[in-house]
Design goal:
Length: about 450
C-alpha cells in the first residue's frame, strides 16, 4: 500500500493508493477506480485553500501603501493586509481578515478608485467569522480611509491649463488679481499660482506644483490625488492631497469649474467640488488657431532645428527641439491621431532642448491670411504669455512672429512686448519639396533657387 500526502497550511490529507494489481484504491475511506486517483488527488489539493479559509488579494494591490495617521508603511501581500491580518474569505469588495494576535475577525470593504488609490471601511474586530453578518454592520456614514501607493508612478492629470480662478481665504474670497493653474509640459504635473489679494487678509502669493497619481469619477464629481511639491511639503502627511472638481456650464459659450482640496492626506471632508478645506472657483479661457494651421498636423522650421505639432483640437502647438537625419521614423511624442497622418518622409528626432507648448489663449485680430493671438507658453513648469502672429503664405507654408514673454495676457501684444516691424519671421513648411511663392524650393537639405 502506497501513502501520499497533500499538505496545505495546517491541513494534511492522506491518500492511500493500492498496488497496481488491485483495480481499486481507497481515498479517505471511499473506494474509487485506480485510473482516477491522480484526478482525485488534484481535486483534494484544490480544496486545501478553501478548507483552510485562505483567500488571495488582487495581485496589483501588492506593495507598500501610505495612510494618514499610520506611521509604518502598510504592506499588502498575497494573503495579508499588514494592519488588518490574514484574509480568510472574500466576496466582491468584501474581505474577512483574521488578526494574528487575538484571532478575532473584521470585515473590510475595499474599493479600488485607481491602481494607486484604495479606499476602505471596516468593522471592529469580533469573534464572529460570518462575512455577510459582519459586513452588514458597516453603515453609509462609517469612516472612510484612503491609502495611496508609495512611490506611485505619475498619472496624467484629468484636465489641462491654463485656467484662472479665485479662492476662498480665511477672511474672504480672493479674486483680484486672479490666480492660475498651468499645465506643465509633462501631462502629470500642474502648477497652482496663488495670488495675494490686498483687500483680503491672510492671502499670500505662492506656487505649488502638483504631481497627479490617480483620478476617478463618482457621479458628476471627478476626483484626483496629487503629490504636492513646495517648501511646506516636507512629509507624506504634507505631500498627499485629494481634490474634487467638476465642470459647470453657465451658458452656451461659458464653461466654469469648481474645485475643492482636502486639508490633510485623506479624502475625508471632500464630498463635492464645493466643499473642502480650500475651495476654488474658476473659468476656462481659450481659442483655436487658424483652420489653415490645423490643415497639417506637423510644421517644420526651415533650419530643421524645431518642429511644431498641432494637438488638442487645434488649441495647442507643441514645439520640439531636435536633430534630424533623413528617412527615419520621427517619434515626436504625438498622440495616436497625429501618428496616423501619413507622410512620405520622416526624420529621426533626438531631443536637444526642453519641449515647449503654446496654447491659444485669446484671438485679437483675424483676416483670411493673418491672425494675431495671445498664446500661453509653457516650458517645463515655467509659463507666461506671448503675442503670436500667423501669416498664410501657401497651402504648405506659413510664417510666424512672436513677441517677448510676459506674466499677464493683457500685456503680451502691447508695443513694449511685440513689434511687428522688428519681430523675426519663422517660416514653417508642412513637408519638404514645396515651392516657395518667390521662386525657390524647400528641400531636405537647403533652400535653393529654381532655375528655368
Amino acid at each position: 500500500m502506497q501513502k501520499l500526502s497533500v499538505r496545505g497550511n495546517n491541513l494534511m490529507i492522506n491518500v492511500q493508493v493500492a498496488p497496481r494489481r488491485s483495480p481499486r484504491m481507497k481515498v479517505a475511506g471511499v473506494l474509487a477506480p485506480e485510473a482516477g486517483w491522480r484526478w482525485c488527488l488534484l481535486g483534494l489539493a484544490l480544496l486545501v485553500p478553501a478548507a483552510t479559509g485562505a483567500c488571495e488579494l488582487p495581485t496589483h494591490w501588492r506593495g507598500g501603501w501610505f495612510q494618514s495617521g499610520v506611521r509604518e508603511v502598510i504592506s499588502i501581500t498575497r494573503t495579508e493586509f499588514s494592519s488588518k491580518g490574514i484574509c480568510t474569505q472574500s466576496s466582491g469588495e468584501k474581505f474577512l481578515f483574521k488578526e494574528r494576535s487575538d484571532g478575532c475577525f473584521r470585515c473590510v470593504v475595499i474599493s479600488e478608485k485607481h491602481p494607486n488609490v484604495l479606499q476602505y471601511k471596516e468593522t471592529l474586530c469580533e469573534p464572529s467569522k460570518d462575512l455577510s453578518a459582519l459586513c452588514a454592520q458597516i453603515t453609509g456614514d462609517a469612516l472612510l480611509y484612503s491609502m495611496f501607493r508609495r512611490d506611485a508612478p505619475p498619472d496624467p492629470c484629468p484636465f489641462k491649463g491654463p485656467l484662472t480662478f479665485s479662492y476662498m481665504g480665511s477672511h474672504g474670497q480672493c479674486s483680484t488679481p486672479a490666480s492660475t493653474i498651468d499645465s506643465c509640459t509633462s501631462d502629470s504635473r500642474l502648477l497652482f499660482k496663488y495670488q495675494a489679494c490686498p483687500d483680503v487678509q491672510g492671502t499670500e502669493s505662492s506656487e505649488v506644483k502638483v504631481e497627479c497619481i490617480g483620478h476617478w469619477k463618482e457621479g458628476s464629481t471627478r476626483y484626483f490625488v496629487g503629490r504636492l511639491e513646495g517648501r511646506r511639503a516636507v512629509t507624506d502627511e504634507d505631500r498627499y492631497r485629494c481634490f474634487a472638481w467638476e465642470r459647470v456650464r453657465n451658458d452656451k459659450d461659458s464653461l466654469d469649474f469648481r474645485m475643492a482640496q482636502s486639508g490633510d492626506a485623506t479624502c475625508n471632508g471632500v464630498f463635492s467640488a464645493y466643499d473642502g478645506a480650500k475651495n476654488l472657483h474658476g473659468s476656462y479661457s481659450g481659442c483655436e488657431f487658424p483652420s489653415w494651421v490645423a490643415t497639417h498636423r506637423r510644421w517644420h522650421a526651415l533650419d530643421k532645428g524645431v518642429s511644431y505639432s498641432v494637438a488638442h483640437h487645434n488649441t495647442t502647438l507643441r514645439l520640439h527641439h531636435s536633430h534630424a537625419t533623413r528617412n527615419q521614423p520621427m517619434p515626436l511624442g504625438l498622440t495616436q491621431e497625429d501618428e496616423d497622418v501619413e507622410e512620405p518622409e520622416r526624420s529621426r528626432v533626438s531631443p536637444s532642448g526642453p519641449e515647449e507648448r503654446l496654447v491659444c489663449s485669446q484671438q485679437l485680430e483675424a483676416t483670411s491670411s493673418r491672425v494675431m493671438v495671445v498664446t500661453h507658453v509653457t516650458t517645463g513648469c515655467t509659463s507666461g504669455f506671448m503675442c503670436t502672429v500667423f501669416y498664410r503664405r501657401d497651402g504648405h507654408i506659413i510664417e510666424m512672429q512672436q513677441g517677448s514673454r510676459t506674466f499677464r495676457a493683457v500685456d503680451a501684444c502691447s508695443p513694449e512686448h511685440f513689434n511687428a516691424s522688428t519681430a523675426p519671421h519663422t517660416t514653417l513648411t508642412s513637408k519638404p519639396g514645396v515651392t516657395l511663392p518667390g521662386g525657390g524650393m524647400i528641400s531636405d537639405e537647403a533652400i535653393y533657387p529654381v532655375t528655368h
